[in-house]
Design brief:
Layout: H1 5-19, H2 28-41, H3 47-56, H4 60-71, H5 82-103, E1 107-113, H6 119-130, E2 139-146, H7 149-157, E3 159-160, H8 170-176, E4 177-180, E5 183-186, H9 188-191, E6 194-198, H10 204-208, E7 213-218, H11 227-240, E8 241-249, E9 263-267, E10 270-274
Parallel strand pairs: 1-2, 1-7, 2-6, 7-8
Antiparallel strand pairs: 3-5, 4-5, 8-10, 9-10
Helix pairs in contact: 2-4, 3-4
This protein binds S-adenosylmethionine (SAM).
Length: 278
Amino acid sequence: MSLGNETFRLLRDMIYEQSGIFFPESKKYLLENRLRRRLEERNCQTFEDYYYFLKYDPGREGEFLCLFDVVTTNETSFFRDPGQLMAFENGVLHTLVKEKETRGEKRLRFWSAGCSTGEEPYTLAIIIKERQEQLKNWTVEIMASDISEGVLQSAKRAIYNQNAIRNTPPAILTRYFRNSGGNYAVKEEVKNLVRFYRLNLFDQARVRAVRGMDVVFCRNVLIYFEDKAKKHVVSWFYDSLNPGGYLFLGHAESLYNISRAFKLVNFDGRPVYKKEAV
Ligand SMILES: C[S@@+](CC[C@H](N)C(=O)[O-])C[C@H]1O[C@@H](n2cnc3c(N)ncnc32)[C@H](O)[C@@H]1O
């Protein structure tokens, strides 16, 4: 069975409307391969049957959860793009702490939006732990969210293989991980800083309900979105941020042609988007 052009467009548009994720014609083969397993699970004979299942079946909501698991790309690792993390730690975090101290505030809120299997939010938690002397008596919250239930379950388990920790400095491995049958388990003190939620970034009501963030990390997520969807999601992030808050995108991503609301600032030579304080 193969995916015809017309059914491809129907499925592609449905996935886009539900998630913002866009499969261009050149990625038809990718969608076809990823959906094949879903067809088998649902006993659908053709891709067209599967489309109508998603459109009309009473079990469609549950199937969308499975669909999101297969159409998303979940590549990630601990300490991904160390240059950006240095900009976060030495630039953004440092600035936020100074600004908040002058206002007598002692609370920081970060959001890893599209957190995949948890490596990104746990990396942020480790960076915070490394600064615990300076942040004594501060409340630090790290919210982590993803559309895929499958990755969130792995994130909550927090046990990783060699590949996931390949960029992690050995001293950090010793301090914040324990051995779990040859794999690396994140210690409770790090896990306790992170709360995981299933959240579709294309769900306007849910995203707009997130408020009071100091930094949003949405790295390597919007690259899978179509421009119109990117514009919406970025404008909702803007509203989720506190004045003076920051948005990190993946190192190959930019807001060019997407939004002019943010100011582009540089920390350690790395571009970061800032919501200017009013
Ligand atoms: C490539 S991973 C990036 C993980 C991490 N941010 C990083 O940079 O290492 C992209 C993640 O975005 C999630 N994602 C894609 N579309 C989403 C949506 N509409 N809402 C929430 N998460 C989404 C995917 O499930 C996937 O886990």
